[in-house]
């Protein structure tokens, strides 16, 4: 019994026998299902997100089709829902029907009604191809349940599971065509070697929520390797090799080590004065009046120490120290037991264990624990309206009426849903002021763990970029050997301005520059780039970050329910914010709220 | 509590972060609400109603957008409902994106998915721009009420108010985006100086229905100025100045004064022989066998007297004396107490008082007296079907089921609604034979009432045109100084063939020609043109006019109910037809019919 709702197709294709047989990527006639939501896209052209157009027509067609797929996904439509395609080609050459093969591949067996229009020009010089789609998304009959969960990431799935275990009926609606949210594991070579593009690490001691779940599901865990040396890519490109977890004795700056140790100690101390259950109480408010950079500068003016602080915010949040409230950052670290524990790869540390089959296996496993027909995929939520009838959740694939709703999307995405009545202002302020971070994860697959030959751990830290930090993310057991490199914060923002090939090259060049002096660096099997910041349904990789002043005013609203709508997600966790453990515990908290409220209502 | 139904938007716009940021007038993706009515327009080109295309691209774009707005409005869609726009430009020049600013202004913050297609040519030479829209109009869940009122003009609103006061439930559906119908007051300079583009005048003695309402609402009234002289623009452009209400002693034609006085008396006499409650009885039938012109010619052959008759039909009905049944016209004048009273601006006359805040303030005030969520705007009615369940009123924004329905649109518009069962033949004949009048009202705003300096009233009458009559429509109290000029009947029809700028110039030239010899005529602040004949939801300014023969056969059907569908509107009034007072009394009559029928049904 599958937990996933099986949708009846939105379309019916007809090819009348009196008309000529169309090629396999279109039909003469398409009709929609009886009750549909309609989706239209703007004409999509073949440029990347920086508005750069490839010279060649084929390149433009491929990019335009990618963009079309994204535009459709944004409204919960898939190519299977496209009933009409119109596309335009400049300077069309009858002898070169370049578009046909690309469109056939893109349509993947689906056959919309299609019109092809040669044109003398398009909106800007250089644009050679444009394509627009009209789609229809069949609407499921309205379902009434006790609880609707919005979002099938870890927090949402955990909440749904708890709700169903309590004997309540529950549906989960998910914008993506898969469960897992930011747990997303792929097998790019299709050889059973999963790599994680999102959250990857857990531990088995103080991350009890996720660890319990891993045990329930019986998933195999891999210990993060910490043997081998770490390389510091110091100012000026100077390389310094040191033992795991140690600060090098000598760096470019004279008293660097002392200053790095000092900022480590000061941060640890500041964290331990905070109360994660009441983060804005007392003196904490002072910390919310300044950025982390300002705070760090009250402790040290050391360039190296400040660069280390920068490494932290980049790696952990995808932002710069000047963008985040000191309180927000320190409270975040405190949620994982303080900086040394949160950043550690050792036992009790934040990065101690990984899943052999990737972290998404937990989400997939959790979904399998749900009742049949619980999860509606490709169903982004457009509107949540509360009335005396209940809470109406309007999704791209139909409406659901719940007694309570649990929203498990990040605050920064609240604005993509129309709430009626509107969210209270504090929640909206949290959503509005969440800093758009930039997390650019690169997983580089190799045929062997070549760095280990030279006694290296694969980890390095760079004050120069484009990579700020790296880790060995191999799973030796199934022959998956990889380095995962983070080009985050301003480094990622800068890198993202380049075309994809140049970005990849810059990453590989950096790896070569850092490891090259110690060991021969082979060519990779594959480089996978993942920018969560550009991900429609995530926008940020760990948590949206608050600048100074926001927590003091609005943090209190983070977990409060809005009528019968409840809010979960890793950013709402008290412990291990931004981690899978925080997601799971927040889901449990949301389920508890709803179960209690419904039990109360029964009395 | 607003009387207006607040609609959930039909559309949801999405701009995926991986795609480039589109300009503010379009979105990459738009999805419709689950339950929608769909609207498509033909490609709209940039010509005026005479099919004249401006030379310049910008001019064509502006006209095409105006036409598009009209095409959408005709189906109850607004630009907020447009989910897709496709537009075509001939000979597109990449360096001149003229369309962008126009479309941005037109879309007014709404962002459909858009495709722009440069093309080598369009359907005819000279066409440079074409635009088509796809819109979706969200359907409200069906509501069941005691009474549905179609049309939120004065008669419909009055009916609804009476129905609600009787304790019955009632909804009002209105095609326009505003209430008021032909009471329409604008503040073109946005300085609190309202001018009336539709009905303007009432009195406080024999127009008791509208006056009572004005008192209930506490609206301030302005007495129509009648001091100062009137100018006759006689044949050949000869100007004659005379006192208010007087016929000049000398006109171009020798015995003009006597003949004008004669036709006045004959008309008065003929009117007083009619019974407005039984207008086709007895000898009256004879009057329905001829046109007003034919009847007038039986009284006089004076060119001046016939020109005066022509002034009447033009000013009062927007038609020529040859187009209207003598009976129809005389009965119409009798409904206002006879010609001298109906045409008078003095106490007891038809044009004695105006509303300081414009006549629409009565409709707006009346709407505010209704219960919350009573009025559905932008909801033209497509179909009215009667069955044993009740009367189903299908509007562009959803269906309503009423026990009774009150239709407050003009007979000439009955054909725009599908009635099931069809209307009886007499009602259809009234609708079919209603003469398409032409009322072209111009309000010319000035910074001061310059005509008064020369002892002039601002009123003139012209045998030449393009203006047939004018009035001072200033509201001194709030510094609004204006002349309202009517270019009606054939004068208006001729004028309407010219481009807008030429029309305005012709009007201003005429004013200069008439007043210039007496006083310096300054440039106006603004000229507002309003052709009610081109108005989708009115078609005529006062009432549709019957040619000979129609009243005798079909007048009896004017007010009869069709099953549970009742008919109101100023043309159905016995008294003050074509006036606001008639509208209000007809609404009261319709409400009474329905209340009695429902009370009967309860017994």
Automatic annotation (TrEMBL), chains A, B:
UniProt GO molecular function: monoamine oxidase activity
Keyword Protein biosynthesis tagged: no
Alphabetized SUPFAM superfamilies for the sequence: FAD-linked reductases, C-terminal domain (SSF54373), FAD/NAD(P)-binding domain (SSF51905), YjgF-like (SSF55298)
Keywords associated with the record: FAD, Flavoprotein, Oxidoreductase
Catalytic activity: a secondary aliphatic amine + O2 + H2O = a primary amine + an aldehyde + H2O2
InterPro entries named among the record's database cross-references: Amino_oxidase, FAD/NAD-bd_sf, Flavin_amine_oxidase, Flavin_MAO, RutC-like_sf, YjgF/YER057c/UK114
Binding site for FAD: 155, 174-175, 381, 571
Binding site for substrate: 486
EC number of this enzyme: 1.4.3.-
Gene3D superfamilies: 3.90.660.10, FAD/NAD(P)-binding domain, Guanine Nucleotide Dissociation Inhibitor, domain 1, RutC-like
Domain (Amine oxidase) ranges: 154-595
Cofactor(s) for this UniProt protein: FAD
Recorded superkingdom: Eukaryota
Enzyme kind, highest EC tier: oxidoreductase
Family: Belongs to the flavin monoamine oxidase family.
Protein name per Swiss-Prot or TrEMBL: Amine oxidase
Annotated source species: Aspergillus tamarii
